[in-house]
Amino acid sequence: MTSTTLVPGRPAGNRRPARTGLPLTRASGLGLGVATLWFSLLVLIPLSAVAVTASGGGWDGFWQAVTDAQTSATIRLTVGTALLVTLVNIVMGTLIAWVLVRDRFFGKRALEVLIDVPFALPTIVAGLVLLSLYGPNSPLGVNIANTRIAVFLAFLFVTLPFVVRTVQPVLAELDPQAEEAAASLGAGRYTTFRRIILPSVTPAIAAGAALSFARAVGEYGSLVLLSGNLPMRTEVASVRILSSIENDNPDSAAAVAVVLLAISLAVIVVLDVIQRRVMRRG
Amino acid sequence: MADRSTLARTPIGRRPGRYVLRLVVTAYLFFLVAWPLYLVGRNTFADGFASLADVLTDPDVVHALRLTVVIAVTAVVINTVFGVGISLLLVRYHFPGKRALNVLLDMPLSVSPIVVGLALVLVYGGRDGWFGPTLEAAGLQIIFAVPGMVLATVFVALPLVIREVVPVLQELGDEQEQAARSLGANALQTFRRITLPSIKWGVIYGVVLSLARSLGEFGAVKVVSGNVLGETRTSTLVVEEKYLNFDKAGAYATAFLLALVAVACIIVVSVLRPKEER
């Protein structure tokens, strides 16, 4: 295993409980009851409340709220930017994981810590952090505050760890003999990577990409100070939901929230399918 | 660690192209994380310790810091108890709906913090939430009060302990626990003497990660807190408020404190973990 795996999104197969196990005893059954009750009160009932509130105005009400010009602009911007960021993460995350596993150099430990910073840093601080280099007083002389690039950059920052941390452990456990065999049979570096390495890490890349997409779609804190939240331009879905809440319009807030929840749910299902497929193969 | 160094000596790792990769990766992380992070430190200390001292003597900020710590610690305790319990149930027992529960437990990680806040308000809101008015009639205000902020924080950090503990429990197996039980230990003794010492590190990582996440929660807390100065304003909300009120020095100083704790949490985990795995 690699030294740090701070970020959720372990390699597939690591945490799926086996089908075996003891039947519930009276004490453990009680424990399960309490845990389920708590989980329902905290997560399941509130999330259902969002769905119920969104459906309160019927399908027409929901559709009207979601297709409102300003709202649909926020959804398009959020999903589009999240997709773009996920693509960048697939390439850069895999590359970073590769360097961290296969290379040795002075300062690598520092890079390891840097990768986890976006995960632990409060999102509002993340926004401030990016603003200090890419904002009005930038020492680089660039000012991307209040533009769509700011949204892209904020997403890129907060999603940095996901692909890296899912790919890294898988890459570290790869058997080098397969690569050596391929190389000795005359495969070039590119062929070895594409035919030997890539197939083994693809599920991990997909899992990391799904997590980073889900995270980006729901991002809020890092954008508050950075993107200016200009309607039709840099406003993202979460900000739109918040302003609906603040304007005492919970129905429209819930409608947009349901769109985001549907995306999260889809991501979770995709992750689960990927994990099961890998389990079957492994 | 050991297997990584052998890998690095394989022919593929020795190609000259690796310097290019190394450079690309280092530059990417430098521009995305390291330099911006450094600038927050520099902006904080632009006029010595003055802005840090200002922040630390501002009663509103001190109150916010204290509130943040109280909420985060409460949330971490709740999540640790719940997380260890549910991990044991998921790994050691078989029950209907286990798979669904396992999938649902990951849900909080991919829900937008604003949606978390909205969901809690819709159920526990004092005016027209599902349970809110009843609870408020019984004297328990949740939304726009500390209990709601704790709930929001617990929600967003919920899966972190579980994600650390479940793999450890799986690798551990249950032979030792069975042995203890067959020798007459009851469930509590088995847990305290056998299980807990073996999953100790998993629990500690989970706690540190949850702590970092809980201290920094912003969006969900913003929705449920009402952001009342001196009452329900947490440190992350102070950063926003100070920045928007053109008190940039104060915003940077508060952000610096929060970043310091976050980075400390990461370093603690990354220092502890390899030792244990060696």
TrEMBL record, chain A:
Residues 75-271 form the ABC transmembrane type-1 domain. It is a multi-pass membrane protein. Pfam families: BPD_transp_1. GO terms for cellular component: plasma membrane. The chain crosses the membrane at residues 29-54, 74-101, 113-134, 140-164, 196-217, 253-274. The keyword Disulfide bond does not apply. The keyword Transport applies. It comes from the Bacteria. Keywords: Membrane, Sulfate transport, Transmembrane, Transmembrane helix, Transport. Residues 1-20 are annotated as: Disordered. InterPro entries: CysT_permease, MetI-like, MetI-like_sf, Sulph_transpt2. It is found in: Membrane. GO terms for molecular function: ABC-type sulfate transporter activity. Part of the ABC transporter complex CysAWTP (TC 3.A.1.6.1) involved in sulfate/thiosulfate import. Probably responsible for the translocation of the substrate across the membrane. Part of the ABC transporter complex (TC 3.A.1.6.1) involved in sulfate/thiosulfate import. PANTHER family: SULFATE TRANSPORT SYSTEM PERMEASE PROTEIN, SULFATE TRANSPORT SYSTEM PERMEASE PROTEIN CYST. Belongs to the binding-protein-dependent transport system permease family. CysTW subfamily. The complex is composed of two ATP-binding proteins (CysA), two transmembrane proteins (CysT and CysW) and a solute-binding protein (CysP). This is Sulfate transport system permease protein CysT. It comes from Micromonospora pattaloongensis.
Automatic annotation (TrEMBL), chain B:
The complex is composed of two ATP-binding proteins (CysA), two transmembrane proteins (CysT and CysW) and a solute-binding protein (CysP). InterPro entries: MetI-like, MetI-like_sf, Sulph_transpt2. PROSITE patterns: ABC_TM1. The chain crosses the membrane at residues 20-41, 61-91, 103-126, 138-162, 202-229, 249-272. One of its GO terms (cellular component) is plasma membrane. Its main location: membrane. Keywords: Membrane, Sulfate transport, Transmembrane, Transmembrane helix, Transport. Residues 65-273 form the ABC transmembrane type-1 domain. The keyword Transmembrane applies. SUPFAM superfamilies: MetI-like. It is found in: Membrane. Gene3D superfamilies: MetI-like (1.10.3720.10). This is Sulfate transport system permease protein. One of its GO terms (molecular function) is ABC-type sulfate transporter activity. The keyword Transport applies. It is a multi-pass membrane protein. Part of the ABC transporter complex CysAWTP (TC 3.A.1.6.1) involved in sulfate/thiosulfate import. Probably responsible for the translocation of the substrate across the membrane.
